[in-house]
């Protein structure tokens, strides 16, 4: 009996798969109107001026041979209002620019399980804009705008009030913020590259329990800035070449219970800037030739900075007060000059990573012009022997003698 | 003139002090470049040598050489030779031999073991400082008749340029920290050849830090091609004016 029922059900299966495949002849819009939920719409190569394409049913929209959807610099190019939509293989360009509306290349409004895959977005105001959506996949897209020419510019991938998002393998450049999150939770951001954006490479607020892995943030005007979040897990990211007065490899403000691991910080004016952070683990990172490897403000507490390599930074650590509630033990510092008598691989003399001149330069930046002069070296030496200005508690009690293999 | 330069250079190159100076520089730079695995660190230590030891040796050695050669110079003056040429030849001979010492001691190892643009800049700065400080030495010794006084002036001017001046600048920067100091700081940097050389190298060595705050002003000034040129022109002026003054003084001097 059970067997019979299973066989009948099996016979019924193809009924469910009666979805049709449509090929667009002239207008994507009219084809979409004819299509039903679950259908596949194939768009052949060509340029389509749809004056705002709205997708309001669950279809699989596939571009073959990179068809172009052009917004004529007036319209929002694609607006997705239905769940389970897949948009793949398009070139989306010339969205409208507006001072009061967030026009985007692709906008997702209140949907679930939408997939945006392998598209190229060119000269859009906002690139991919998700609001109140969840469980969407944004993968393998290339977003390229021209923000450098515009005072007004939008973000590359912009998510607002989203949950369970997956952003993988996207490339974002020349937008305002490469990736912008506000109230985005439990999401995975992996393998993206965000560079030469006019503000931040990655910018998020109130976005808890997100994972950031294997991303590259390079040469952004102001680096990366993340705020007011907890449970942020960052691994194997690369922050490089973010230089300027207000540029940070990463700025952590009011971040709690988070981890920063195995990341590379190179050639940034400031590698990590921490303000008001609590219980952040900074482990197994490499800081190389930054101006300031870390600026840890006195408002930070219970952070643990350990097993990191510090190479060739102008200043290793700077702070703005004498209160230190963080732990800096067991790192490798290339400026360390101590010895290791018992041969356990860790120095017997504590290392104070804050130099006098880092404190002085923090208060009076103009003195940087005297850096490396005889006078300044003398002052730094004196301070090392008799600490008066630098915080005595900011100390690595057992620094590694040799660089860690990272 | 060529003949005098040749004699001076040959005379100095046989000098034991100059030979040991060359060997010392060579040993130190080899040790730094070979033993440290960290290129930046070696460059930094070499920068310190270029900024401190080099001017000191250049100025003291040149002063002492000038006083020791005073009899030789008097003899030359008796010959039908122009005074300008005589002093110029002595100066060129001195600077040339010091340059040879520097190039062998620091330049060659740097080019072989490092070879980066920063290393090249460091060599150029070192050469400029050698030339500048031997010019200053000639000026001091032409003005001062007494050897002890001349050496005193040499030591004092080295002390001034490498330490006192920076202290003074630091003091000023603190006193006037409420004002925008970026541009005055650039000017103050230009008024001391050692600072000028240091800033040129610093902008490459610590480019990331120099991009922050005030650094951006330096970087945009000295970092641009025009600024680099300005810096080198300033260094040239630093080579020129002590020498011109010394020549004028020497022409009118009662030997």
Automatic annotation (TrEMBL), chain A:
The gene is nosD. The keyword Transferase does not apply. This is Nitrous oxide reductase family maturation protein NosD. Coiled coil: none annotated. Keywords: Repeat, Ubl conjugation pathway. Pfam families: NosD. InterPro entries: NosD_copper_fam, NosD_dom, Para_beta_helix_rpt-2, PbH1, Pectin_lyas_fold, Pectin_lyase_fold/virulence, SCF-Subunits/Alg-Epimerases. Pathway: Protein modification; protein ubiquitination. Residues 151-338 form the Periplasmic copper-binding protein NosD beta helix domain.
From TrEMBL, chain B:
GO terms for molecular function: ABC-type transporter activity. GO terms for cellular component: plasma membrane. The chain crosses the membrane at residues 12-33, 45-67, 88-113, 119-139, 151-174, 217-241. The keyword Membrane applies. Signal peptide: none annotated. Keywords: Membrane, Transmembrane, Transmembrane helix. This is ABC transporter permease. The lineage of its organism: Bacteria, Pseudomonadati, Bacteroidota, Chitinophagia, Chitinophagales.
């Amino acid at each position: 009996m059970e067997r019979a029922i299973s066989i009948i059900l099996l016979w019924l299966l193809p009924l469910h798969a009666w979805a049709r495949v449509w090929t667009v002849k002239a207008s994507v819009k009219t084809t979409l109107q004819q299509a039903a939920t679950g259908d596949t719409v194939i768009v052949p190569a060509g340029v389509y001026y749809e004056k705002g394409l709205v997708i309001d049913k669950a279809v699989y929209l596939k571009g073959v041979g990179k068809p172009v959807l052009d917004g004529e610099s007036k319209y929002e190019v694609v607006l997705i209002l239905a769940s389970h939509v897949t948009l793949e293989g398009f070139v989306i360009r010339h969205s409208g620019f507006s001072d009061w509306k967030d026009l985007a290349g692709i906008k997702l409004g209140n949907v679930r399980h939408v997939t945006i895959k392998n598209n190229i977005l060119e000269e859009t105001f906002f690139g991919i804009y998700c609001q109140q959506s969840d469980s969407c996949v944004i993968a393998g897209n290339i977003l390229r705008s021209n923000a450098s020419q515009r005072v007004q510019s939008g973000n590359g991938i912009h998510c607002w009030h989203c949950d369970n998002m997956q952003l993988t393998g996207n490339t974002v450049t020349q937008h305002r913020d490469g990736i912008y999150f506000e109230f985005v939770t439990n999401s995975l951001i992996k393998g993206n590259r965000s560079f030469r954006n006019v503000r931040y490479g990655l910018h998020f607020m109130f976005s808890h329990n997100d994972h950031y892995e294997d991303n590259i943030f390079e040469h952004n005007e102001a680096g990366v800035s993340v705020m007011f979040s907890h449970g942020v897990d960052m691994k194997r990211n690369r922050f490089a070449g973010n230089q300027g007065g207000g540029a940070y490899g990463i700025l952590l403000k009011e971040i709690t219970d988070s981890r920063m691991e195995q990341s590379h910080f190179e050639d940034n004016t400031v590698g990590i800037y921490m303000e008001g952070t609590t219980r952040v683990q900074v482990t197994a990172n490499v800081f190389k030739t930054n101006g300031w490897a870390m600026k840890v403000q006195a408002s930070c507490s219970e952070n643990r900075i350990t097993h990191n390599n510090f190479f060739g930074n102008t200043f290793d650590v700077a702070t703005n007060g004498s209160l230190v509630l963080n732990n800096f033990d067991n790192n490798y510092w290339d400026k360390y000059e101590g010895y290791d008598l018992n041969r356990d691989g860790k120095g017997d003399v504590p290392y104070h990573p804050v130099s006098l001149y880092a404190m002085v330069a923090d208060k009076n930046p103009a003195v940087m012009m005297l850096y490396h002069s005889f006078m300044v070296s003398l002052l730094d030496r004196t301070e090392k022997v008799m600490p008066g200005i630098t915080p005595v508690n900011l100390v690595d009690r057992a620094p590694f003698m040799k660089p860690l293999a990272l | 003139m060529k003949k005098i330069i040749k004699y001076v250079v040959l005379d100095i190159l046989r000098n034991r002090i100059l030979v040991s100076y060359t060997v010392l520089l060579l040993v130190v730079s080899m040790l730094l470049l070979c033993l440290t695995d960290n290129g930046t660190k070696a460059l930094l230590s070499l920068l310190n040598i270029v900024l401190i030891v080099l001017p000191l040796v250049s100025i003291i050695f040149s002063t002492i050489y000038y006083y020791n050669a005073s009899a030789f110079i008097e003899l030359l003056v008796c010959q039908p030779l122009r005074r300008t040429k005589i002093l110029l030849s002595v100066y060129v001979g001195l600077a040339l031999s010091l340059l040879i010492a520097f190039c062998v001691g620091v330049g060659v190892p740097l080019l072989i073991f490092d070879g980066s643009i920063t290393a090249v800049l460091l060599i150029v700065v070192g050469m400029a400082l050698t030339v500048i400080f031997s010019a200053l030495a000639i000026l001091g010794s032409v003005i001062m008749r007494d050897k002890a006084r001349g050496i005193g002036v040499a030591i004092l001017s080295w002390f001034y340029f490498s330490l006192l001046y920076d202290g003074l600048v630091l003091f000023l920067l603190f006193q006037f920290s409420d004002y925008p100091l970026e541009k005055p700081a650039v000017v103050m940097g230009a008024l001391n050849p050692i600072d000028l050389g240091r800033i040129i190298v610093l902008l490459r060595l610590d480019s990331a830090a120099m991009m922050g705050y005030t650094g951006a002003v330096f970087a945009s000034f000295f970092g641009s091609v025009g600024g680099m040129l300005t810096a080198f022109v300033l260094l040239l002026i630093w080579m020129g004016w002590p020498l011109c003054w010394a020549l004028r003084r020497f022409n009118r001097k009662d030997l």
